[in-house]
Request: fold
Amino acid sequence: MGIRLEGKPVVEHLREEIMTRIAKLAKDEHTPTVIIIRVGNREDDISYEKSIIKNCEILGIRHFLKHLHADVAQEDLINVIEWANEDKNIHGIMLFRPLPDHLDLEVIRNVINPMKDIDCMNPINLQNVLETNVKGIVPCTPKAVIELLKYYDIPLKGANIAMVGKSLVVGKPLGLLLIEENATVTYCHSRTKNMPDITRKADIVIVAIGKAKLIKDHYFNENAIVVDIGINAAEDGKICGDVDYDLVFDKVKAITPTLGGIGMITTTVLLRHVVLACEDLLKRKAGGGIC
Reply:
């Protein structure tokens, strides 16, 4: 029978570290602060916003909300971001994606101060991953996967890992983080030929391909560790992953659930980035750098 890799104990472990760092900042009368910018009223954005706020309150992170109409002019959104960049009391900027079609993400992502870019939107922070500077702000979901694997003592050094998905948000940076842990990573995607032949040989299979229940039990060997990052709506309206969880659970060694898995760890990593940004900005200020 498979083991369910729950996210909750990982979150609790991370919270202990985060709260210790926040308490240290509080002694010097500093409070990590994040601004949450939401354009429009997408249901998934609203749900994620509520989760972030709840976790801010648990951890003791101050938060501000800025809600903009879906038809907001690009100049007005940029003005909000630039204001947040300049405000020394704001340490982290969270902008929900995807943005409405009339807004140019490539322009907007470059406006966010890399030091405050807690969701790793600015290309400068993505470049840090490529250059193996993994101690700073890195993409939250890939980092959440690393935290989960390490918490459950799943060996990464020398591990054969199949990364199903090659997006710039998850697949590509996660593969780089895994290589930095000395794993051997094989990328698979929608055009990969005979994908099950590849994934069945892997010690760990990580799936982020964005298609409900696409990956069935014949993609895995019985000793596989499966990390499912996908969140989709099934035909019956229920939330499901990219992996057919019910079919796969008893056929592998361990697997993450769709709800209560990587998603909740991702939110915690995001807020740890707020603390990191606060610490780094204070260091730069103390050293005479520009905040």
